[in-house]
Design goal:
Largest sheet: none
Shape: elongated
Number of strands: 0
Helix content: 55-70%
Distance between the termini: 35 Å
Number of helices: 6
Strand content: under 5%
Radius of gyration: 21 Å
Length: about 140
């Protein structure tokens, strides 16, 4: 047990937060799966990286101060005559993100610009921003 406490302490010093909190379950799972040393280390590092990316995503989302729950299916198209259902469907496909285009939302107050931006940033697919692993891990 002293060895595990030492490893948790070392992980804390190295700022490996996920590892320091989840070392015991990871060691238990490794004893069941019996991976090689390299596989075990890679798994630990991938878990740490994923947790850091998730924390970073949450931090950026909080800093964006976008309104919480949004659903574009509830968007009031009558509030803005400049965008129709067909255009909205095309924008929701996020092809403009894949093609590296910028999107500028302009209009008077209360027409749903922040609402739209909030929905696009929170889409379940996380196509706009989400976990990005280095190419060798994908």
């Amino acid at each position: 047990m002293k060895q595990i406490e030492n490893m948790k302490q070392y992980a804390g010093i190295l700022r490996l937060g996920y590892l320091s909190k989840n070392l015991q379950p990871m060691l238990h799972q490794a004893s069941i799966d019996t991976p090689g040393y390299a596989d075990f280390l890679e798994n630990m590092l991938v878990k740490e990286l994923e947790q850091r990316q998730l924390n970073d995503y949450r931090r950026r989302t909080k800093l964006a101060r976008l309104p919480r729950a949004h659903e574009l299916d509830e968007y009031d198209y009558k509030a803005s005559s400049s965008i129709g259902i067909r255009q909205m469907t095309q924008l929701r496909e996020l092809l403009w993100v894949d093609q590296l285009y910028n999107l500028v939302l302009m209009g008077p107050s209360g027409t749903g610009k922040t609402y739209l931006a909030g929905d696009w940033s929170m889409m379940p697919s996380r196509k706009v921003i989400g976990p990005i692993l280095p190419p060798w891990l994908t």
